UniProtKB/TrEMBL annotation:
<keyword id="KW-0238">DNA-binding</keyword>
<keyword id="KW-0804">Transcription</keyword>
<feature type="domain" description="HTH araC/xylS-type">
    <location>
        <begin position="189"/>
        <end position="287"/>
    </location>
</feature>
<dbReference type="InterPro" id="IPR009057">
    <property type="entry name" value="Homeodomain-like_sf"/>
</dbReference>
<dbReference type="InterPro" id="IPR020449">
    <property type="entry name" value="Tscrpt_reg_AraC-type_HTH"/>
</dbReference>
<dbReference type="Pfam" id="PF02311">
    <property type="entry name" value="AraC_binding"/>
</dbReference>
<dbReference type="GO" id="GO:0043565">
    <property type="term" value="F:sequence-specific DNA binding"/>
</dbReference>
<dbReference type="InterPro" id="IPR003313">
    <property type="entry name" value="AraC-bd"/>
</dbReference>
<keyword id="KW-0805">Transcription regulation</keyword>
<dbReference type="InterPro" id="IPR018060">
    <property type="entry name" value="HTH_AraC"/>
</dbReference>
<dbReference type="InterPro" id="IPR014710">
    <property type="entry name" value="RmlC-like_jellyroll"/>
</dbReference>
<dbReference type="InterPro" id="IPR037923">
    <property type="entry name" value="HTH-like"/>
</dbReference>
<protein>
    <submittedName>
        <fullName>Transcriptional regulator, AraC family</fullName>
    </submittedName>
</protein>
<dbReference type="Pfam" id="PF12833">
    <property type="entry name" value="HTH_18"/>
</dbReference>
<dbReference type="GO" id="GO:0003700">
    <property type="term" value="F:DNA-binding transcription factor activity"/>
</dbReference>
């Protein structure tokens, strides 16, 4: 079977597995895993706080400049690569959903943080000086708990991580993001969850509307109101993203990718991709691989 882009789990990045968690200073982690410069996916949540360095990191084909004081968050499945200029350091935490979920016992708890939504505008945060200092202190405390294990040390790590998440989530939160979600916000989240599950086999807004027990017009109106685009475009954007992810693997032919995404033939897939991305799939592949 042709393999897709490499997917790493926590075990493949560490000789020791501890409660679905890996915590490290970034420079030694980078030295030990030089293959991570190339595009890859994670099966876990991933965050990095930069304290030194320059260059770029790329998440789902959007590039960000590396700056000290910057923290970025990734969710499972996103495509990621790095290109650093000179010495780069900071802190890294990789953790499974279960590591937090088993502690808070609240379904979908991590989804409540804006930076774990998959929206890249929220995933990369440049911290103010005071918040940067606080974040470094929390990372150091987490490292201490890892390197000098104490009774209930794993629970202390979880508490420190939650303190970090809650503090950063509050930096850019709007009044609408604080407290209980509205009905329409919950509807959009459920729509996005369904797209994530079915983007390859369900293409039409009316079918998602049926799964949500609402009319297509209602779904479209809510998407335009909260996301600024119709429901059909939300679905197409997710399909396009997956097509781009698959195109980073040169072992997959255009036919393979069209089949994986349930397009009837190559020409239909190519037409869809060119209309959405502004270039045909082969040109996109060449651009990514050459870069």
């Amino acid at each position: 079977m042709i393999q897709s882009i490499p997917v790493y789990d926590i075990c493949s990045l560490s000789d020791v597995r501890q409660d679905d968690l890996l915590v490290s200073r970034f420079a030694p982690y980078l030295e030990a895993h030089k293959n991570l410069f190339f595009p890859h996916r994670h099966s876990f949540y991933h965050l990095v706080l930069f304290t030194h360095g320059a260059g770029t990191h790329t998440i789902d084909f959007e590039s960000f400049d590396v700056n000290p004081g910057q923290i970025y968050f990734m969710i499972p499945g996103q495509v990621h690569s790095w290109h650093f200029d000179g010495f780069t350091d900071g802190y890294i935490i990789n953790f499974s959903a279960n590591f937090i979920q088993s502690f808070v016992l609240q379904p979908g708890y991590l989804d409540g943080f804006s930076f774990f939504s998959g929206n890249l505008n929220d995933a990369v945060v440049n911290l103010p000086n005071e918040s940067f200092a606080t974040a470094k202190q929390l990372f150091e405390a987490i490292l201490t708990e890892i390197t000098q294990p104490a009774p209930q040390g794993s629970d202390m790590v979880r508490l420190l991580m939650l303190q970090l998440f809650i503090g950063i989530n509050g930096l850019n939160a709007t009044p609408q993001q604080v407290g209980k979600l509205s009905y329409n916000q919950t509807l959009i989240k459920n729509f996005q969850v369904l797209i994530e599950q079915h983007y390859a086999d369900i293409k039409l807004p009316k079918d998602y509307a049926a799964l949500l027990y609402i009319t297509p017009n209602h779904l479209n109106a809510v998407c335009k109101d909260l996301l600024g685009m119709p429901a059909g475009e939300v679905i197409r954007n997710r399909t396009l993203l997956e097509a781009k992810r698959l195109l980073t693997n040169p072992k997959l032919s255009i036919t393979d990718i069209a089949f994986k995404l349930n397009f009837s033939d190559n020409s239909y897939f190519t037409k869809f991709f060119k209309k959405s991305a502004g270039m045909n799939p082969e040109d996109f592949r060449k651009k990514i691989l050459n870069s």
